[in-house]
Design goal:
Number of strands: 10
Shape: globular
Structural class: alpha+beta
Helix content: 40-55%
Order of helices and strands: EHHEHEHEEEEEHEEHHHHHHH
CATH class of the largest domain: Alpha Beta
Distance between the termini: 33 Å
Number of helices: 12
Length: about 280
Amino acid sequence: MSISNQTYKELSIPYFKEAFDCIDEVMIKLKVPYYLIGASAISLVLLKKGIKPSRGTKDIDFAIMISSIQEFEIIAKELMKYGFNNVKDSPWRFYNGKFNIVIDLLPFGEIEEEFTVNFNERYTDLHVLGFSEVLQDSERVDIEQKSVQIPSLEGMIVLKLIAWSDRPEVRNNDLYDILKIIEHFFDLNFDEIVEHHNDTFPEEGDLDQFKIAARVLGRKASKFLNVSEAISKRILETINENVADFENSVIARQWVKDKDWDLEYAVEILEEFKKGLIENLKI
């Protein structure tokens, strides 16, 4: 997947290129595997089809695979040379005053203990459930002379649902990003859907691209649930809570605000995603 030079401007993230160049140089120097995740990664995939981001962000999220806090501290010292400094009370967050941009470096891998990274006694633990499983299924995106690994779209939905369920009161953007993926997934993956998921097409009546997309995304996301009981439990609990009583579905209510949908239809999209998950569930 190649992204044109114009991508940097179209991402609607000022100084994305400059910040990304710094991260890339540090990670290559220290031989640390890293991945672009979050809204920026979703925007890169959508730009492949010429779909420009509908919301800008000054935050760029990276996941880094490391084995210890000491390794993280070495990375932090290197980033300071480029003008990135730790944000108080959030040791994984770095701010660059020159670029006016915030970067989250979210560590996972051997550093994890029960899907949690403990920085020190002062700071809140960072939950990284799903990172190891989802990022094993990443794909490479070329950006000019550089490249970066990003999760699959179904992997991004899993990470977004987990992040939202951790702190639903402050993470409405996660639900917006999930909706964005569902909204464009049919067009982005039309050939695959026709070839491998044509049973999702109705035998009669109108074709609903959103419902088909949600169901196929559920099928594809189930592979992450099948390799982790913890992921399966979290995702299914979150979805079940939001379809059992549609009038009180937090996810559906947020989607109604973002789209011209009624509440019942928004829950139907969630139900299709759940149907896809269960169809391929093995554990």
